[in-house]
Structures are given as C-alpha cells and as structure tokens.
UniProtKB/TrEMBL annotation, chains A, B:
Residues 21-61 form the HTH marR-type domain. Signal peptide: none annotated. InterPro entries: ArsR-like_HTH, ATPase_NBD, HTH_MarR-typ, ROK, WH-like_DNA-bd_sf, WH_DNA-bd_sf. It comes from Cryptosporangium aurantiacum. Keywords: Kinase, Transferase. GO terms for molecular function: DNA-binding transcription factor activity; kinase activity. Belongs to the ROK (NagC/XylR) family. This is Sugar kinase of the NBD/HSP70 family, may contain an N-terminal HTH domain.
Amino acid sequence: MQPHESARGPHVLRQINFGAVLRAVREHSPARVADLMQATGLSRPAVTRAVAELRDAGLVADVDETAQVSMGRPAQWIRFRAEVGHVVGVDVGSHKVIAMVADLAGRVVASRQVTIGEGATGARLLQSVRDTIVEALAKADLTGEDVWAIVVGTPGIVEETSGEVLLAPGIPGLAHLPVMDELHTLTPGPVLIENDINLAVLGERWCGAAVGSDSLVFVHWGVRIGAGILIDGKPYRGAHGAAGEIGFADVFSEPDAPDPLPLVGGGTSGVSEWGAFERMVGTQAIAELADAAHAFTERDPRALLSPDAVAAVFAAATEGDPTALAVVDRIAGRFARGLAAMLLVLDPREVIIGGGLSRAGETLLAAIERHLRPRILTSPRLVLSDLGSDAVALGAVRRALDHVEARLLAHPDA
Amino acid sequence: MQPHESARGPHVLRQINFGAVLRAVREHSPARVADLMQATGLSRPAVTRAVAELRDAGLVADVDETAQVSMGRPAQWIRFRAEVGHVVGVDVGSHKVIAMVADLAGRVVASRQVTIGEGATGARLLQSVRDTIVEALAKADLTGEDVWAIVVGTPGIVEETSGEVLLAPGIPGLAHLPVMDELHTLTPGPVLIENDINLAVLGERWCGAAVGSDSLVFVHWGVRIGAGILIDGKPYRGAHGAAGEIGFADVFSEPDAPDPLPLVGGGTSGVSEWGAFERMVGTQAIAELADAAHAFTERDPRALLSPDAVAAVFAAATEGDPTALAVVDRIAGRFARGLAAMLLVLDPREVIIGGGLSRAGETLLAAIERHLRPRILTSPRLVLSDLGSDAVALGAVRRALDHVEARLLAHPDA
C-alpha cells in the first residue's frame, strides 16, 4: 500500500490505535504492554508506539520497577497519569450550584455546593457559578489554570455550538447570560454549556442506575418535568436542542378544548412559565392534591410547597396511610399518562425516574408501574435514579472527560 | 507502516474507497476516472483499483468509445451497470399489496398493485403477497432469480433480526405469518421485513417531501396513526422495534380517569384493536364528526366510512363550506395535540404528514399549523407527503438498495 493512496490512511489508524491504548491504560492502570495488547487486539509495535506517544503527551508514566515484585526480569508497568489534568462539572439549578472537580480517570477529588437566593439573577447568579467553581478547585489545591474542560448544566434549551441558553423558564434571568464568557476568564480550557437533564442521563449511564445503557430515557420529575434521551449510547438533543420537553405536553384537556396560549413568546423568560403536564403532576400539583385530600391535616399550610411536605406524603404512604396512598396512586396515574406518550414514541430499553420525586422510593415506583403497563406496548426497565441530586454534576464531569478525550484523539501532540 | 500493525488497515481503506467510488459512479454515470477522483477525493491509483474491482464484480462497464466525441485520445468513460441486478419493495396494507421492481440505480422498472379482500388472512394473504411480487417481476421480464433483495413493509411491530411480525392490529392474521419463509422460496436473495411507516419515512427522504433530511418524523394519518422517525438520516426503531406508536397515546381523557384496558394481551391479534389517539382522530372519527355536524346531509350514511366521504369533507372545506371548515378545524386541533406531544419529545427538523389524510391538502395543513404552533417550543417544517400511497413501497426499494450496497461493501467479490 502506497502512503499517497489515501490521505486518511496511516493518520486515521494512528489515531484509532492511540485512542484504543489510551482507553485501555486508563481502565487497567497500571498495565503491562502485554495487557494492553490483549485489551486492544493491537500488535506489540502498535501498542509500544502508542504508549510512547502517550508518554510524550504526559498521559502515562512508567511505574517504578522497585515497587513491583517479579521473578526474573520485571515487565514494564505503565500507569495512567490521571492527576495530570482535571475537569469541572457544574450543575446550575434554581436553588443551588454544585461544582465537582475530577481527575482524568473520573475520580471526583473535590466538590462544592452553594445555595442560591431567590433573587439571584443576572450578574449575581453568574458570580455564584464562578465562585462555586473556584471554591471547589481550591479544595483540591487547584486553580482554573489546571482545568482541561468545564461543562455547565443548566435548565432550558441550550444552543449547541454557542452554548447560549435560549429559553430557561425555570431560572428567571438565566437566558442569554454570558456564562461562557465569564468562565473563559477563569480557565484557558474549553467551556461547554448543556441542558442539565441531558447531562443527568449521561451521569446515570456512567455510574448510576443504567450503567452502559444504549437506549435510555431519564425523566426529571420535580417542580418541573423534562427528559434526557440517550440513543445508541449518545445524548439525543433534537434538531434545535429541545428534545425531551415532555413537561409541556398537553395530555389532560378535553378533546375539543381551546388551544393554550403560545408556549414560546410569553412570560418574562420568553417561554410559558409552566407546561401543561408539569402543571398537573409537578411537585406543586402533588402538594395541592395532598392538601385537597387532607393528607396534611396537622401541618402548616404554608409548608405545603416545601420538598419536606411532599416527602411527608410519600413517607405516610409507605407506612400504609390510606389517604396518602390514594394521593400517591393519583399522581402516579397522571404521571404514567404523560410518560406513556413519550415511551410510545421512543420505545427505550430503560427508563430512569430522577429529580426530587426519585426520593419517594418504591411505593411511588410500584404505583407508576401499575398505571404505566396497560398504556404501553413494550416493557422497558423502570428504575429510580441512583445519583439523585448529583446526577447533573456527574454527567457534566463525564461530558467534560469525553470532550478532553476527543481533543486528545484529534491532537495527540497538544 | 507495517502491514501487520493493524488488521483493520488496508482492508478497511479498500472498502471505504470501493464504496466511495461505487456511490460516485452510480451518481455520475457515465463518468471518467478524473470525475470519480474529483467526486471522491481519492488519488488516481486508488480510483483505478476500485474501478477494476467494480468491473470484476460486474457493477461497472466501459462505455463504447465510439459513442463519445472527443478531440485527441478519448478518455475512458465508465458507466454503472444498474441493470445487472434488481430489488423488490413491497407494501402489504390492510386492503392492498403493492410490489415495485427497481434496478440498482433505483429506477422503478415495474410495479403491480393488487386489492386484498376483507377475508384474506393467513395463507391467502401470503399467496397474494407472493403473486403480486411474481407479477411485478414478470412485467419487467424478471424472475425471483434476478432479485438481489426483497424488502416487505407491513403494519405492526416487526422483530428486527427474524423479521417476525409480532403485533399487527391493522391486519388480522398477519402476526406470526411465515412471510420470510414464503418469500425465501421465491428468491435466493435476502428478504427483510420492516414496519411500513419506518419505510415510508425512508421513501420520503429518498425522493419525496424531505430529500436528504437528517431529522425527520413521518406521521401516517389514515384509519390508523403511527410515526416513522429518522435520526441522523437513519431510521430509529426503538429498543423493541416499537418506536413511533403515537396512535396509542392517551392525550384526551380527564386527569384522573381510570386506566384503559391493557394495550398488549387483548384482542384477536394480541394487541388492543385501537389506540386512544387514532380512535379520536383517525379517518373513522373524522367521518363520525362530519356526520354529527351534518356535513353529509345529502349523502348515504353507509358511505360514511369510505375514503370518498372523508375526501368530500375536505373538498367542501376547501370550497369554503362553513360546516366542513368547522369539522376540519376540530380534527386539526385534535391531531395537533397528539402531534405536539411527539414533537416536544423528538424536536425534529421536518415533519411529513402522510397516509390518506395527506390528500386533504393545504386547508388541513394550514389548520394543523394553526393549532400546533402554540403547543410546541421549536419550529419544524411541516409538509404533506409527496409520495402518497407509494411511500412505503418506494421506501422498501430504498431499504433493499441500501442492503445490497452494504453487502457489496462487506463482500466486494461476492
């Protein structure tokens, strides 16, 4: 084969081999060349060359031989230098910011959570995001200079290339904030912004309730409702970054009810404050249903909207309280209706229920199952989130690591 | 670079080059080597070798030089031998079977449509499918021996690898019929079975209303309702081959209405006869709405369920009849509700409305647009099907051609 026959040839192969050996050494570190040959299926010369490139790039190092016990001449052990770089995953929510710092092996080395006041919009919100990241880095004795990538998850619809938050009904003042510009002053590394639920599904696939799943829907169920979709193991964003917005589906009104007010164009944030589905079955609707059913007889009605109030209903249901059980059954029935519409469209293999309601536990899960099964044609596995409120930040870490890896593969010498 | 360094190297490149040149010569036939170099970006030796392989495989031939006018020494012209093989695309519907025969360039050289009687189930249905194919081939002076692939589209959920029709509420007796076994006695080529709407979307992308689209939803709207989904240019089937079954979505009942009877497990075909959405907005519901609105005062009520009756409503609406316009507005509003739920989940770039209702024309399309826009967050392009009742068969032809091409790339010598 002549080198000039195709411009794609040796270069592509070198990249493929480099990537395969990088993944193998990261997974099996420390490893010998023979281990890496077995893990990758590559020949000894190919592995040796890739290891040399990885060593030049500072990504692997030889393990000190005296640390190894061996008969005869010791084989050379190579370890992945996970500590050579770090990434930051950030979750910007309506009430809190979480920043997690991880090394290149994905080990979280520091994290920081900051509560955001109701009025924190615009510049103050931006400052909180920045401060949270800086404080998390400081806990790990790092600065922005050490960061190879930052990924920020926010609610709303995010434009893929610019990272601009186009619509964010959940956080007034977030849309069109210069998050990326602000964070670029913090680090020379790349900054990516992504819809939070699209990151949560990545987190659960990485180390949560559906490890390695190739066909997964993550439904965030809290005050708001939205879904992250994973197809062939990759996030599905839709043509305009707006896939999974099931919270806006209108599945309860009468057949010939008048059209709703337009979703887009109204409200202070450019999008309708609430979707029809989340209005009927979000945390607030649950609290109202529970109140109407007198499941809160001894509570202060002003506590109704706190997460504790909703948690109390599920606790009572788990203990067998008939009023609470009836409330749980009713909201599970409503939730199943909207979930079924989405599952009939997507037919995923696995469904994770996340967000605040994932803490409601097995009583709620069983009720959803009961109402869902008659409404769908196939049988996806239905589970609760493993990662809870860490899902978005962990997904952001995963996304940042993927970005770093893609850059390394494209420019191994950089 | 050593040949032993990676087993994937030269072989993969040879396949890539072979495929690139195959596509280029098919598209530009007849073409010169220089044209193919330009179309593929490959070097002259790479193109020349691929052309030699294609010639050995019988897929290209040199054009007779005397047919070309040229100053000086004529360049060699190569043409794609589209006539060397044929494929068959079949649409098995509840009332008809269509078979189309196409050459390897995708040119339809013969087609045959046969009406199926109400009672045609089991062996008789199978025989009709076979007869329709044989008759279509005979019109092109071909037999099953000449066929490189047959793809059959049927309603229902089709198991991907076995081609078994698992659930087919639309055609009683179709589920579990040995369609593949029957057709394997007709041709030595491969036989594939696929959901009809998944094929329709391929057809529209190939030569219909959304040529080349990478993000497309095709909604079949007739007696039944279902959708074909195309993501990154490829059909999305879901984890169990059941994606797009929006006809079963329950988007009209009251919030706390009791659950429906289970969709799966009932009825003679193992699945509920009708989905909630199609029951409210399928052709039959339209006829009933029109009847209730006295849009048919001068018609025989028994004609209500014929396609003509529904067509009459749309014709009257187009002419400005207020009663008919009100009916169209009402069904468009209902349809928009279910369509919105799907579009909020998928966020496609383009939406095609196909099936019988696609013939209703611009009056219906405008009414759908009006009811849909307030209900969604993004702005997909909404169009009517270009291919009408040919969409499934043409999509089956496209799928068969893709299958032939994939086999050629994997085994160029076969």
